Amino acid sequence: MNPYDNRYSDPDSYRHRHHRSDLMGQKTPVVPTMIGPVPHGGGAGVPPPPSFAGRGGPPPVGGGYPAFERPSSGFSVGRGGGGGGRGFSGGRGSNFHGGDRRNDAGRGRGWNSGSGRGGGGGRGGRFGGGDPRRELDNIALPKQDFGDLVPFEKNLYFENPSIRAMSEHEVVTFRARREITVEGHDVPRPIRIFHEANFPDYCLQVIAKLGFVEPTPIQAQGWPMALKGRDLIGIAETGSGKTLAYLLPAFVHVAAQPRLVHGDGPIVLVLAPTRELAVQIQEEALKFGSKANIRSTCIYGGAPKGPQIRDLQRGVEIVIATPGRLIDMLGAQHVNLRRVTYLVLDEADRMLDMGFEPQIRKIVSQIRPDRQTLYWSATWPREVEALARHFLHNPYKVIIGSQDLKANQSIKQVVEVMMDLEKYKRLIKLLKEVMDGSRILIFMETKKGCDQVTRQLRMDGWAALSIHGDKNQAERDWVLAEFKSGRSPIMTATDVAARGLDVKDIKCVVNYDFPSSLEDYVHRIGRTGRAGARGTALTFFTESNAKFARDLIKILQEAGQIVPPSLSAMTRSAGSFGGNFRSRGRGGFGNRGMISGSNTVPLGAGRPW
Ligand SMILES: Nc1ncnc2c1ncn2[C@@H]1O[C@H](COP(=O)(O)OP(=O)(O)OP(=O)(O)O)[C@@H](O)[C@H]1O
Ligand SMILES: [Mg+2]
Q1: Are residues 315 and 392 in the same domain?
Q2: Mean pLDDT highest for which of 124-138, 354-368, 582-596?
Q3: Which of 74, 209, 512, 555: CA 20 to 30 A from 91?
C-alpha cells in the first residue's frame, strides 16, 4: 500500500477533487506523511522532523530579520566555507561577474536569431570564450541513410478480455470520471487495473512493491496507446505518474526487439531538459530494468564523460539524456541512434521551445522516421502543437482535465501582492510559521538572486542550500541529495528545479520571484502536492509581474483558489499578456564548473531551526 496515496484507490476521487482538495480557507497546515528511505542521495532514511521545541526558543522577532539588501560589492563570503568536507570543492567564494547570464532560463530569443538578452556571449570570460550553444551548433552529425530500414515490431498491445468485455457506456463513464479526453484514430480503451495492461510479471511485482493501488488516469489511457506503437501526446497534471506512463511501455518495446549487438546504440531514448530530471528518470528505469536485464544509462552534462562513454560502449537498451551532452557524444561517435525506435520527450513543451528546439531537431535527424515518438508534459501551450506534430506521425493525444493551462488541484495556492523590499521579511515569517523540518522549496528567477537569498538565510541561521545552473554538478547533486533526504529541508532554486523533480513531501513551494511564464508557475508549484499528497504554494507578486495577473487569476479560479483583490487590481493597470511561450528561448546549459559559494556560508548564530 502506498502510504502517501489514497487518491488512486478511489475511482471517484478525480471527479470530486474540488471537494477533496478543500482548498479555500483550509486552517490546519498541510503536513504530508513522511515516508521511509529516500530513493536518491545516499539512501539515508528521513530523519524525524526536529520540532521547534528543540531549537532553543523561537527566533528573534521584530527587527531580527532586516529586509534583504543586495550587497554592493560582489560576494566574498564563503571562502574556505563552512560547508567543508561535503564532497565538493566548495568555498571558493564569489564568482559573480559581469558576464553572468541573467538566469538559468537564458532569456535569449533563441540562439540563432542573435536577438534577446541572454544567449550567446552572455556568460562572461570565465569559460575560455566558448559559447556552449554555438559549440554544440558546430557539431556536425553524420547524415543518416534511412533508405534500407529493417522493419521492427511496435504494436505490442493485446487487449485484455476484461477490457474487450466492457460496454461502450462503461468506457465512456470511466473516461468521464477521470476527465480523460482522447483524440486520434482507432484509440484503444483505457485499462482499469494494472494487470489489464499485460505488462510482464516483473513490472507488476515492482508496482506492488511500490504500493501503488491503481493506475493514474494518464497511465490508464496512456499505456494502451503507447503499447499500440503509435505516436502520442500525453498531457496530465504534475505528479500524476507520467514517467511510468512512458517507461513501462518502453520495457515492453525493448523486449520485443532483437538483442543489441556490438556497436549498437540504444533502442529507447528519453530526452529531458535538466540533468537532475534525467538522473531521476533513470533511477525510475533502474527500479524496473534491473529485474529484466534491461540496461539503462544517463547521459548528461556536468558529470565525467568516461563512465558515460563506457556504458554506451558496453551497450545499453535505454538512454536517458539531456540534449547537449547527447549531441556531444554523437559528435564524438561514442553512440549512434540507428537502433532507436522508441523516442520520448519528457517535458515536451520545454524541449520544443526555442532554447532546445534546434538541438532536438539535430538529435531527431539521427533517428529513423518510422520510430515511435511520445511527448509528455503537464502543460501544453497551443503555440507548441504545430511544431510538435511536425515530428509525429498519426498521433494519439490524451489529455487529463482540460487542455487549458491548469494547476494540480491538490495544491493550495496563495498569492500575495507586495513590494520587492518586503519579500525577505515575508519569507522569514513564513519559515517561522511552517518550518517543522518538512521540505520547503523556494524559487528565484535569477542565479544571483538565488545566491543572495541563500546567503542571507544562512547568515540568519536558516540552513538553506541552493541549486542553479552556475553551480557545478557535484554541488548540485549534493544539494539535491541533502534536500531529498531531509537533512537540509530548505532548498532555493532557479527553474532548473521547476520541472519533473519528484521529491517526496515538499510541504510548501515559495515563488520568491514570479516566474517568466505561467507554464513555469504550474510546474514550479507542482513540486508539491504530488501523487495524491497535498501541498501549499505561496507566490510573491509585485507590480513588475502585473502582465501575468490576468492569466494567473484564471489558474487560481480554475483551481477554486482565493483571488486576492490586490491581484485583481493589477489587471486594470497592465496589459496582461505574458508573451509567446516558445520564444522564451532557453537552452539547457548549466554550469561551467563555477561555485558561487552561497551554500558554504557559515550558518549564523542563533540558528532559528
Ligand atoms: N499508479 C500510481 N499510484 C501511485 N503513485 C504513483 C503511480 N504512478 C506513479 N506514482 C508516483 O507518483 C509520483 C509522481 O510521478 P511522476 O514523477 O511520474 O509525475 P509526473 O506526472 O511526471 O509529474 P511532473 O509533471 O511534475 O513531471 C512518483 O513518486 C511516482 O512514483
Ligand atoms: Mg515528469
Answers
A1: yes
A2: 354-368
A3: 512
| 158 within a domain of the structure (yes/no) | no
Condensed to tens digits (0 to 9), the pLDDT of residues 435-463 reads 888 899 999 999 999 999 999 999 999 99
Q: Residues 423, 339: one domain?
A: no
Same domain, 441 and 353: no
Both 418 and 293 in one domain: the answer is: no
268, 319 Cβ separation under 8 angstroms: yes
Total domain count for the chain? 2
Alpha-carbon separation of residue 291 from 2, 50, 257, 274 (angstroms): 21, 37, 18, 27
Write down the pTM of the prediction: 0.80
Range of the structural domain that residue 587 is part of = 411-600
Pick from 533, 431, 435: which is nearest to 33 by CA? 533
Cα 109 to averaged position of ligand 2 atoms, centre (Å): 26
| 347 CA to centre of ligand 2 in angstroms | 7
The response to whether residue 516 sits with its C-beta less than 6 Å from ligand 1 reads no
440 and 384 within one domain: no
State whether 489 and 514 are in the same domain. Answer: yes
User: By the 8 A CB rule, do 538 and 509 touch?
Assistant: yes
User: What pLDDT, in 10s, does the model give residues 481-531?
Assistant: 999 999 999 999 999 999 999 999 999 999 999 999 999 999 999 999 999
**Same domain assignment for residues 465 and 548:** yes
- Nearest Cα residue to 368 out of 148, 558, 568: 148
